[in-house]
User: What shape does this take?
Amino acid sequence: MKKTTIIFLLSIISSASTEAVTTESHTLDFSESDYTFSYDGNGSLVIGTVDGDASYPSPDEPGLPRRSFSIAVPGSRKYASSSLSYTKRLIRSDVRIAPGAVPVPTDGSAENTPVRVVSYEARPYPASNCFYSLSTEWSDLSVIHFITTPFVYDAADQKLYFIDSIQLSLSTEERPAGETGLITFSDRELVKSIVANRDAVSRIPAMRSASSGVSGGQETIDYVVITSEELRPSFVPLINWKLAKGLKSKTITIEEIDTKYQDSSSQLRIKRCLYDLCHNNSLKYALLGGDDAVVPVRGCLVVIRGEDPGLVIAKDIIPTDLYYSCFGGDFEWDANGNGTYGELDDNVDMTPSIYLTRLPVRTPQHVKSYIDKLLEYERNPNWKNNMLMSGVRLSSIEEGRSDAEVKGEKLYDSAIRPYWSGEIFRFYDTFTDSPESEKYEVSAANLSEQISRGYSFVDMITHGQVAYWETEYDENYKSEHGLRQSNEASTIVTTIACFTNAFDYVYDPCLSESLIRNPGSGVIAYLGCSRKGWYSSRQDDLDYSPLYESKFYRNLFSNAFPESNYGMLVAASKLAMTPYCTKDNAYRWIQLGLNPVGDPEMPVFTSVPERFPESIVMEREGELRIETGVYGCRVCIMSAWDEGESYYRIWDDVRNLSVTDIPSNFSVCVTGPNHVPYYDVRGYIQGETLTGTTEMAGGTVKIGSEVTPLKGNGPVIFEKGSVTKIKARTTIMESGTEIRQGAEVTIVN
Assistant: This one.
């Protein structure tokens, strides 16, 4: 169901002002049917949303559901002012509105939260029905965010009004020359996922393209791993796979960064390196290859306050990797210079310029275990297109249903089921799809057994600590279970539980680390909190941590992005929540503390992926012909022995392709939406006399006078003094091959 309809009434109107102010008008349409109305135990009206995609104001204000509304404008312009007009109509009289939801931590410290009665000031709420929140900025685009609600509650006479339409007048002005914060090229698809004027994004001129955006003649670097010298060799298989898919990739070590950059902290030096790669080399993906003992994390102070700023509900230093991907605002996130990072007055930018994740590993074996799982997932996936939705009571059970079950069903009904036809298995403390539901409790043993059955997605709504998920009975599901977990499927885990992703804690491994490092767990990504998670005190609300999950799954299953890469999906979810993070509140806490674990470029399948037939790559006389059968494919052909140093070409949006300048030893990789990549390495020696040093690699290497139509026929002669090294699964020598005395030929299978 579409929650808000946007109608553009007027484009840009020139102003006579010397400030070059322009004004554009937008109409926001709302439908009362998109909202739900019920009463709590005190007889107060509780206003919810059908799709669960809303936030709520302070717990001391009437709980009027809010949504964000965003507009893209050229990066040369910025927000100046706005005004709005509307007509409201009365929908309830003599009614008391229940207050906004109290944020409750998912660490098990809070029990039942009583239904509250709050005394409101005798005035209309909210102060504005569409107010400016902040702007997020790239070099060529600026996105202006508003927070809206269609409700007006007059607390003085207890009347509730609804607004069917808001007319928003937005004024922007030219940005002063040299103004800081405009950093890098934005991913247009990312911006389109959050703005109302999607079509306008395509019309805004780009300052540079993703493919040609390198400056000063420097090479493009699409993907980088930041790790230690010790772990660097372990990432070679991953780097080689990224190269084969068409991403120029490399590894940079902490030691290299410390030598090159002179900034005061390791965190700042790493961020400076990533900024340079983004700005000069068009970097798109970054993987932090290690836990905090390998790649340090930036700790930021986050506070949750009540309506009275002096009332501190929670306070902590939260590890956040978002710091490394956002380059606007104050670069160091310490504008006030007090050595405490991430405070409200530190001019913190939360706009990702790159897609960044972490792999919390410590040893070469940890790295190998994960990369083996990742490559198996991408090349030979056991993808079952199903989901395990599990949970245990957070703080309440009403009418026989725990709040975990209610929130899980709300998440499924609003963000998953409308877009996805996969199967789900419900495994809650108060309900399960198991035929033995009365006996099948959410215990550690039963949860482990369920995961072992193989699910593409596992969502866990429960309390947690560093090393466990809280279960219903018996012992909790601990890191020890994660290290022993068996699962033949490839699995992405999402959870609202506290601390389970605390990769910086002294205790090692935390729960996420145990699942990621375990070669048999099948877990290839983990999206969870590194400190406390938060949920709404109202049972059927998805506010706070569940809302982030909702954004993630909605972005994935609605096919908001053609590529659906893991890092992009997480970044889009966070970017959509940025308008709510300008205060000391639970949204800011989750924004910083929800750290994605896994590979940022990993495609996330939304159905069982199809396989390209072997026949899509055909060898003809002097020509390599590729016919994918589907649009939107990428083809990468590169020289195999030297990992693309001598030959590297990429074609995008391919259906049919003909290539004639093929090297003798090459790999070909074809990737497409929801397809298993086609990958093959081929080597041919035909019609050549080898005199120097020759190296060749491949799945199959063929040698002879007529082994391929890609080259002219003729004998192969290994001349005296020549040195040839061949590494392949199969090496075939056919007629027309002569190895002369004094030639050295080494074949390694």
Q: What stands out?
A: Residues 382-598 form a domain with the Rossmann fold fold (CATH 3.40.50.1460).
